[in-house]
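Dock alpha-D-ribofuranose; give full complex structure.
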Amino acid sequence: MGKSIVVIGSYNTDMVVQAPRIPSPGETILGGTFSMVAGGKGANQAVAAARCGGSVTFVARLGDDMFGHEAIAGLKTDNIDTSHVICLPDAASGVALITVSDDGENAITVASGANALLMPDAIEKADDALSGASIVLTQLETPLETIRATLDRCQALGVPVVLNPAPALPLDDAVFASVAVLTPNETEAELISGLPVSDVETAKSAGEAILAKGVSTLIITMGSQGALLFEGGTCTMVPGYPVEAVDTTGAGDTFNGALCVAMSEGKTWPEAVAFANAAAALSVTKLGAQPSVPTRADVDAFLIAHTS
Ligand code: RIB
């Protein structure tokens, strides 16, 4: 059993419509069945870490509304410690409007609501959890000042922070030197490095530029191709697992949650990234963010089936 993982971040209720393709601006297209599912990058990562076997505490803010109450019930079903998930009066819970195309791609618009009210005081209030954590995982769907407060407090406590810089946002260079592991996708790696990323070679160049900002371990996720791992002066492509993509929503979140579990269990870096690749691959085979997050048994069986 790994040690505790604290995930700090967003919760959204995802309103999902499947459609033949993503509509262009100003266009109306007829889609398929509507579904409402649990999502939000932070919550998806917390659920992935919990289902993969981590002992997880989630720090988040919700509205004191139907979505907020359902969110807490769902997180508890996944055995996540919700003592730092607070419903704020007069705030609306976060909502994401998602179109998923027939080829599994998505377009997402987020109404942040209470996620925008996760302020640095939440980090002070969660100090007991941070002090006992083996890893803290966070992303960029909540205010940057809170992410800075997280990095400062974790540095003082000696707790490593995994930062998934999603969605892509400009960050101060000071942030990079204080994260233990940075996990951008190709778009985010482009924004951070200022270099185009279209294949493994260009991702390597972008990765070198990001490392020069002071990041110690960098993992650039590259969808079904796998992930490029920069660690200890080496760069390794850890291959992904080709699967039939139904919906890629939350695949990056699943990768990050699973990665933290593997890290907390002391797996080697290539093993940890392969484990996270397998969890992410399984997640794209089903519709919806949290409904598609696999269990530990699913990931272990998938890895056995795909190891020659
Ligand atoms: O990363 C996927 C998530 O992004 C969705 O669940 C949606 O809520 C948005 O936060």
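Observed: The two ends are 26 Å apart (CA to CA).
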